[in-house]
Specification:
Spore Coat Polysaccharide Biosynthesis Protein SpsA, Chain A, alpha/beta, UTP:glucose-1-phosphate uridylyltransferase activity, GalU_uridylyltTrfase_bac/arc, transferase
Length: 301
């Protein structure tokens, strides 16, 4: 039976320790990327792909996430009274984006455990998982293509990106076989954060998944893996080697623009890149940036 995919799960229970002390009292997902929190870009991506039912899996001290997507009547009334309709519209954009739900992960037992918390909400239908650290440029659609592949092949689908072999230890890595579609591969094996010497390829798993509900059955019996956590990669490995039962796992190879906001340097790069591309900021920022870069190579007086 074919299901129209409508549900997205966004795990957002991490502590954000790489951004301390900024994340001591503020969720890492609320760190601004130009003038919107990172989490809003992710929800907008889900909605653009037709997924209007969004479940966030949160943890302690994540109330700011719920507040951001809720109404702020006093602020809206103040902006309206001042006639600042442009800012009012920006504030209201996040409120009506999607049908948002929230559940708590409780113990921080890993990404696989976080996804498992969505079982009751999702039910027995395919669904998407979007990780908040990975921002996909809206001009380079990925999730809609993954949904298309899932619907056509009735399988679980992960997003892959070719990375420098020296960086593969930062990701889950996939062993793949080519298919009749240029951007689609069949995944024959997965390993979490392998060394460059043991990695099956330089195809790295990035933070987008479209999964069949059988993944919940597998996660319930998946033992803690790397880092003592229940790894989603380990569950996907089990799905990949049991295609008769699960349909296997396929990958969509993404060659577009991706911004990693989970790393300090890449987070700064994301802000600069996105700001430079904006019509309201780019014309002033780009010339300044070029002058600044030139000044870095100028001799010190």
């Amino acid at each position: 039976m074919a299901y129209h995919i409508t549900k997205a799960v966004i795990p957002a229970a991490g502590l954000g320790t790489r951004f301390l002390p900024a994340t001591k009292a503020m969720p890492k997902e609320m760190l601004p990327v130009v003038d919107k929190p990172a989490i809003q870009y992710v929800v907008e991506e889900a909605v653009a792909a037709g997924l209007n039912d969004v479940l966030m899996v949160t943890g302690r001290n994540k109330y700011a996430l719920e507040n951001h997507f809720d109404r702020v009547a006093e602020l809206e009334a103040t902006l309206e009274a001042k006639g600042d309709l442009a800012k009012l519209q920006r504030v209201q954009e996040s409120t009506g984006l999607a049908d948002l739900h929230y559940t708590r992960q409780g113990d921080p037992k890993g990404l696989g455990h976080a996804v498992l918390q969505a079982k009751m909400h999702v039910g027995r239908e395919p669904f998407a998982v979007l990780l908040g650290d990975d921002l996909i440029d809206a001009r380079d659609p990925l999730l809609s293509r993954m949904i298309e592949v899932q619907q056509a092949r009735r399988t679980s689908v992960v997003a892959l990106m070719e990375v420098d072999p020296s960086q593969i230890h930062l990701y889950g890595a996939a062993a793949v076989e080519l298919t009749d579609e240029e951007d689609v591969v069949r995944i024959t094996g997965l390993v979490e954060k392998p060394s460059a010497e043991t990695a099956p390829s330089n195809y790295a798993i990035i933070g987008r998944y479209v999964l069949r509900p059988e993944v919940f059955d597998v996660l319930e019996t998946t033992a803690p893996g790397k880092g003592g956590e229940i790894q989603l990669t380990d569950a996907l490995q089990r799905l990949a080697v049991a295609p008769d039962w699960t349909g296997g796992v396929y990958g969509v190879v993404f060659r577009g623009r991706r911004y990693d906001t989970g790393d300090k340097i890449d987070y700064i790069k994301a802000i600069v890149q996105l700001a430079c591309d904006r019509d309201d900021l780019g014309p002033e920022l780009r010339p300044w940036l070029m002058d600044f870069v030139a000044s870095l190579s100028a001799p010190v007086k």
